[in-house]
Amino acid sequence: MRTFATALLLSAITSIAAAAEPTGDWTRWRGPQESGVAENSKPPIEWSESENIRWKIEVPGAGSSTPIILGDRVYVATAIETERAKEGADEATTGQAADNPDRGRQRGGRRGFGGGSVPTKFHQFAIIAYDRKTGDEVWRSVMTEEVPHEAGHNTNTFASSSPLTDGETLYVSFGSRGVFALDLNGKKLWEKNLGTMQTRNQFGEGSSPALANGVLVVPFDHEGESFIVALDATTGDEQWRQKRDEPTTWATPLITEFNGQYQVITSGTNKVRSYDLANGDLIWECGGQASNPIPSPVRYKDNVIVMTGYRGYAIYSIPLSSKGDITDTDQVSWIGEDAAPYVPSPLLYKGQLYFVKANNGIIVSRDAETGEVIIDESRLDGIRSIYASPVAANDYIYITGRDGETIVIKHGKSLEIVASNKLDSEIDASAAIVGDEIYLRGKHHLYCIAK
How many CB atoms lie within 10 A of CB 9? Predict the structure, then answer.
């Protein structure tokens, strides 16, 4: 998958995390523009287990992170439970790990809040490379083998952070197990241990790193001493670190350039903050959002839009020209408080924001510039619960529910459903689109959907 396509400089309007991005690939969480959009792609709008499936493979272990695609390879992060138990493990609880399909269900099922027992078996935290044409495994590289220290939410996994690449090196964070860099043949180049997270209610970890200008930014918000750290992408050496007054956060940062300065924008329960990528200095901050932020920020023109949807709804459009604390000031461009996503990130497509209400199959669209509601709360039949973030290509919006149903709607000012597609997999991972292919990662399988 490696055409090593020409790297492109992103403009200030759509400038996203990297100064250079391989063309036509899906190399990071939320894609090349970090908005969920695949330009110049025309994937199918209809499929089933027997139609428009180029290949379907079983992925070992468990993970809910997005696959990334570069050239002729698809890369997947996973955590594989082994048979080796830690010394002194209670046999009665051995095997209650994230890979267990029934883990935690007695305490609330798929929609529950509790996790299962703390794992007692070692897990292999690995990256697997697959051939894009056939789905054949090309290589598998185990970064570390450890026993997870927390049970995790029963809908979370120990590999929920998405890998990313600059076209030459792969990067992946397994949180408390470390941050790793490896070459495109699976050879480990460096690793960095940032400590052990103590997440809220042992819900587990989930933020993905962000990358720009040779700097890898890793958020580390938890119930201990929270911080955000910048690492040299070549060596793993620490460049800067900033303490954060934040409880556990699962949002992935956005790095974007404005007036020659790269800003690292991070959501938080207490405040959204922007840091200078060069030195970690705080540029601006803004409070007032809801708690437990998970959706990633998106940029539209000279503003960044942040959303939270847990125990309240908040959407803030904040100018990148802001300075200092702008909480409760008229510097905020617009605010929406009617509906916002809890787990899924928003999609920004052709000036419109598409997102769901909380984790429900209720779609909303707003004008990204003004905040005006374009499509008011509308239920999508067939989707009850949703974790995956919407994606877009060729004027179609793809919305995938946790039961494997993908609703396809036509981009526009009104809701027009054009297809409903069911797979036999539970799907929490967000889709990736490259060329005329959609890659969907289910609970146990990875699909390449193409005509």
Answer: 10
